[in-house]
């Protein structure tokens, strides 16, 4: 979103009544024609803005997009989310975030979109990303930790998302599916895709990509049996700006503490308590072999503990296995 458009949106949101066009012109050094172009752009994005001669403009309806003007008043963070780069449509927020990170973007920048045309999850699976309903974001991190620890970040993210979902959707009891999903009733609500650029002993940046099915009323037929949305699970619409702010508010303290530790820290207890896999028989496809056993939880370092039928216990890191749950 254009910065001037976002500034005008912020002024409209903070004003209880009408905001005069003259005041906007004076504040932003624009002509009336330029102000009108920004108002038109906001209307095209779904904002209902009333215009009355002699009074000015008033915001009546908001599509609750994950933009700074909507999210910033809700943030309690010092760094994360203080800059949001928003696209109405983009191929992939992760791809845009990587481009910005390579160009020097600071830690905490969030790339958000209302729609993705090339959204993807782990194993290059397609992530269906329609407009107007869901949350698609990518967060740039620059942790001062060895690359070997980055596999813990998806689990930190899951823990923060779990907190945020329960804050925003009272009564929801989501479960965590190792290593990077949140489910309700056995169906997927959220997925995470972490990507990094590093050298042998140095992490340059990490991109935390998150997709959350928020206000979808119907799940596409091809994924109806495996996916759900917060609206379907709770019966109530959820504010996307509030959900994003809640996640960032929960994630920042967990992340800051984690950078000074060696293990998952306080996130571990939540991940164990709300584990979806623990006690279930699972099949792990790894190195063209299929390992079958019982999920016994995770280690404090985020590895899956798998008890095989022969009595052996395997410890699997997040990058090694593909899980298929057998009920």
How would you summarize the topology of this molecule?
Elements: H1 3-14, H2 21-28, H3 32-44, E1 48-52, E2 56-61, H4 68-71, E3 84-90, H5 93-102, E4 110-116, E5 135-141, H6 153-168, E6 175-177, E7 181-184, E8 187-198, E9 203-212, H7 230-234, H8 240-258, H9 267-273, E10 281-286, E11 289-298, E12 304-308, E13 313-316, E14 322-325
Parallel strand pairs: 3-4
Antiparallel strand pairs: 1-2, 4-5, 5-9, 6-7, 7-8, 8-9, 10-11, 10-14, 11-12, 12-13
Helix pairs in contact: 1-3, 2-3, 6-8, 6-9
DNA-binding region: 21-40
Domain BPL/LPL catalytic: 69-259
Protein name: Bifunctional ligase/repressor BirA
For this structure, what is the CATH class of the largest domain?
Answer: Alpha Beta
The name of the CATH topology of the largest domain is BirA Bifunctional Protein, domain 2
Strand order of the largest sheet: 3-4-5-9-8-7-6
Helix content: 25-40%
Termini gap: 45 Å
